[in-house]
Design goal:
Layout: E1 2-3, H1 11-19, E2 39-43, H2 46-62, E3 69-73, H3 75-88, E4 94-97, H4 100-108, H5 120-125, H6 128-132, E5 135-136, E6 139-140, E7 143-144, E8 149-156, H7 157-163, H8 171-183, E9 187-190, H9 200-211, H10 214-220, H11 230-245, H12 261-267, E10 271-277, H13 281-287, H14 289-293, E11 297-300, E12 315-318, E13 322-325, H15 331-344, H16 348-356, H17 367-371, H18 376-388, E14 392-394, H19 396-399, H20 402-416, H21 422-430
Parallel strand pairs: 2-3, 9-10, 12-14
Antiparallel strand pairs: 1-11, 4-13, 5-6, 7-13, 8-10, 8-11, 8-12
Helix pairs in contact: 1-2, 9-11, 20-21
């Protein structure tokens, strides 16, 4: 159990940078880029937005003849827009992504450049396991650009003290905590159900704890009826049990992740716990600094499940976010953005700014730097999760191909809303294999 009582030191400066628009060459139009100019599309929110803006500003200042123009999107809007733009050849020169199935799809269609041997300085700075997630076969098509992002269990220490509940370490303890908070009139878990993808964190951890990585690996391998694996069915049954007990309250279907409404429920005392990515920690630092300072926020690992085959040290989430280089960009633009990647990403300044902003860089040997941080408790906790995890499962909606991922989000949401049974979910998803 980790309590983080200190706030970021560079928060004011970073927020100022986040509020400023980049100066640089313009784009071809809203959401459309030209192959003749260097451009990047990126997602807003969390510490990565602050670091990227600072990094691009520095690059543009030092390279006035090779500037990179940046457009910013909310997470969900970006996912909808970028695939269409890439397919039409009007996407950005630097393509933001998560690796996994979407990257494989881009590679199959010849939409991104092989970066093998072109960014060796950057690769040498990053943990090999994180670099691997940007590879298809033995070639590198995407490089990490942000913090490692394990999904962690945040909780409101003040509500736990007020209601007299112990932090759950096992599934039975979690159910007891849910009942206690419901009886006290507190929503046990904040959940951004309107965004759907936060629901994945529940089925991923439950499936891994019950059946180990093999259950989802069978899905990735396309094995017949892989979604009918008993571990997945049991995970869905446990989700329904949580919903029936009132674990997520009555209005979770209208809570939106892009506005950080789930985090707000936690730091305003309306919800006791939140299963979310480590990327959200920096948002707590900026949105609720007093709450963090007084020790109201703490984090712990996902509970164990008695008799489960999974290793309790396994984690789920995103090893990092990634940049790829568009194959539709001109050769000169490809050279510009590749040089930016090799020189700027995870440089010493970039890495330190990420630490100062509450992020966990996927860079080896950071123990001393993290220990000196104003956010040492949380950063060390998250870094150790990543460093010690026997298995780090990429978010399922990114690990799968885009069409299958959309079906997953749709069918899982139906389970959370009580409109589908675990078996109906499995039947529908087996049809996508």
């Amino acid at each position: 159990m980790v309590h983080s009582r200190r706030r970021l030191t560079l928060g004011t400066a970073l927020l100022a940078a986040a509020a400023m628009a980049l100066t640089g060459c313009g784009t071809s139009g809203p959401g459309e880029s030209s192959a003749a100019e260097a451009s990047a599309w990126a997602t807003t929110g969390s510490v990565h937005e602050q670091i990227w803006k600072k990094s691009f500003e520095t690059w543009n200042s030092e390279n006035p003849d090779s500037e990179i123009a940046v457009e910013w999107f909310n997470n969900d809007a970006y996912k909808e827009k970028v695939r269409t733009a890439i397919g039409a050849g009007t996407g950005p020169s630097l393509v933001f992504g998560w690796g996994g199935g979407t990257l494989a799809d881009y590679v199959d269609k010849g939409k991104v450049v092989d970066l093998t041997g072109k960014v060796d300085d950057l690769v040498a700075r990053v943990l090999p396991s994180v670099v691997k997630n940007g590879m298809i076969g033995d070639k590198l098509y995407a490089v990490p650009n942000s913090q490692s992002q394990p999904v962690v269990l945040y909780y409101n220490t003040e509500l736990f003290d007020e209601v007299g509940v112990e932090v759950p370490k096992t599934w039975d303890e979690l159910l007891s905590a849910v009942d206690a908070f419901v009886d006290a009139g507190v929503t046990p878990f904040a959940l951004a159900g309107a965004s759907k993808w936060p629901e994945l964190m529940w089925i991923q951890y439950l499936t891994d704890r019950i059946g180990g990585p093999e259950a989802f690996n069978a899905v990735l391998a396309g094995e017949d009826d892989a979604w009918s694996n008993p571990a997945i069915i049991e995970a869905l049954e446990k989700i329904q049990e949580l919903v029936d007990r009132g674990a997520f309250g009555n209005g979770f279907g209208s809570v939106v992740a892009d506005t950080r409404a789930d985090a707000a429920l936690l730091h305003t005392g309306k919800a006791a716990m939140l299963l979310q990515g480590s990327w959200l920690y920096s948002s707590f630092l900026t949105d609720a600094p007093d709450f963090v300072d007084r020790g109201g926020l703490a984090t712990t690992s996902f509970p164990t499940i008695e008799g489960g085959a999974g290793d309790p040290a396994d984690i789920v989430g995103n090893p990092a976010n990634y940049w790829s280089v568009s194959a539709d960009a001109s050769e000169d633009v490809q050279k510009t953005v590749t040089s930016y990647l090799d020189e700027m990403v995870f440089s010493d300044d970039y890495t330190q700014q990420l630490i100062d902003g509450g992020g966990v860089p996927p860079v080896a040997g950071l123990e001393d730097a993290l220990a000196k941080s104003d956010n040492a408790d949380f950063l060390t906790f998250a870094y150790d999760l990543v460093k010690n995890a026997p298995h780090f499962q990429l978010s399922w909606d990114q690990a799968l191909r885009p069409a299958q991922a959309q079906e997953l989000l749709t069918n899982l949401d139906l389970v959370f809303l009580g409109k589908s049974t675990p078996q109906q979910f499995a039947d529908a998803m087996n049809g996508t294999l």
